[in-house]
Amino acid sequence: MSKKEIKKHAKPFGKKEKVLNYTSNTYQLTRPNKVDAVMALIRECQPKALDEWEEFYFEKAYTKKKDKIKITRETLDELGERLYAKITEVVIPEWTAAFEDLTLQDCKDYIYQVTIVRTYDGFLLEKSVINDGLAKLFPEIEFEESDPELDHAGDIDYIGKVGDKAFGIQIKPITANANFGNYKITERMSSSFRDFENKYDGKVFVIFSTRTGDKKVIKNKEVIEEIKAEISRLTKNARL
Fold first, then answer.
1. What is the pTM of this model?
2. Residue pair 15/75 in contact by the 8 Å Cβ criterion
């Protein structure tokens, strides 16, 4: 029996999609503080049709802020206007200037930097986050680099062993002024994380780190408490 084809309702934007997606993510125009946690809402709704979901959304959705605001169609239109303003007033001028200044040597330098220099910087960053950070915070845990032969190795940098179980760590470099709230896990990464959890029973944590002076600092410090809770959970279930 052939699988039932899932009808797609989304409007295609063609070549415009990249600039729309880039700008929306950069300025966080579709984050929960602007449009509510939409995946949580649609799972609560369990709609059978698009119009059912739309009606539920506008009935239930509020901005995720201290002073939450009811979301209406006008709210989404206003976000669309802000998106257009950012594209026309900021993104297009910035990209135009970049295109005009771009040289062949820039392209050669970029490939070299990504392949050699940034790889080395990333390697040092990973080592510092584990050896100078997590290993000192959790001395009872054995941290080791992910086996490059495993399917998840490209998405999980280190594993923390808890008896016969383990949790995963992905380390992302981030500049001191960057907003890691823009970071989104891809579908491939989500699949890798699920495979890891099925195999080792532990969750995968994404750590954002930056350099402050001579030190590497974990930016999303709340992840430390999350790892601590996961270690506690795994310890109860592990064969030590």
1. 0.65
2. no
Give the domain-ending residue among 99, 131, 162: 99
Each residue's pLDDT tens digit, 96-126: 999 999 999 999 999 999 999 988 888 888 8
Helical H segments across the chain, by residue range = 16-26, 32-35, 38-45, 50-60, 73-86, 92-101, 104-112, 118-128, 135-137, 187-200, 222-237
- Please check whether residue 134 is in contact with residue 230, taking contact to mean a CB–CB distance below 8 angstroms: no
162 shares a domain with 137 = yes
Q: What is the pLDDT of residues 12-35, one digit of tens each?
A: 999 999 999 999 989 999 988 999
Q: Which residues contact 174 (CB under 8 A, 6 or more apart)?
A: 180, 208, 209, 210, 219
212 CB-near residues (< 8 Å, 6+ apart): 176
Q: Is residue 110 part of a domain?
A: yes
